[in-house]
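Recap from last week: sequence in, structure out.
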Amino acid sequence: MKKLVYLFLAMTLAWGALACKGDEPASNGEQPENTGSGSGSDDPDVVPSDSTDNPGDTNSVLGHTLIVYYSYTNHTHTIVTELQKLVNADVVRVEPAQKGIDYAANNYAIGSALIAAIRENPDDAASYPAIDPVEVDFSSYNTIVVGAPLWWSNMAAPLQTFLFNYGSRMAGKQIGLIVSSASSGISGVEADARRLIPDGRFLSPSLWIRSSQTSDCHAMLTDWLDEVGLPK
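Predicted structure tokens:
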């Protein structure tokens, strides 16, 4: 009888030991690991460093907008400076290769001649004035804002050179256009932009800021960003 009792107790202890073993934590790496650090995919402003969704995209949301502009009188420069306060963007300022040119001399005769040369043969690279080399990875940007001064009802010649050289790389991008002029309408500048970026997705409307409005352009830029749907 005692043997049966001892046998029963031994079987009970063995069964209890096996049952408790299932409560031990896994040690073979199968247990899910929480690697979140507060900057995961739920945060639209940050892409995890090990993300493979867009292996060629090092820009993602941050810096997804590029601002390209030319400025001689600094009206456009002032506008772009204000725009930078409102949007997260990289900026390229186009500069003529030939330095020290007084475009204002003789009633802007040099600038007038440059525009006339482009009008005469807009498909010839030789018609456009040389600019300093620029390196831009356009694949990093979804949106490009062009800041353009108006020269004789057209886009300023150095900026036309930039777009002539790189407009084809802007295909499929959102293109916003901001034009600075004293008083003339901007339809000619808009036409130049569409000619030079033929496959761009132009945001409407363009923003026209007269020279007299430059110092107070912050509110105009804010309203325009809301109107065309660009994030601030």
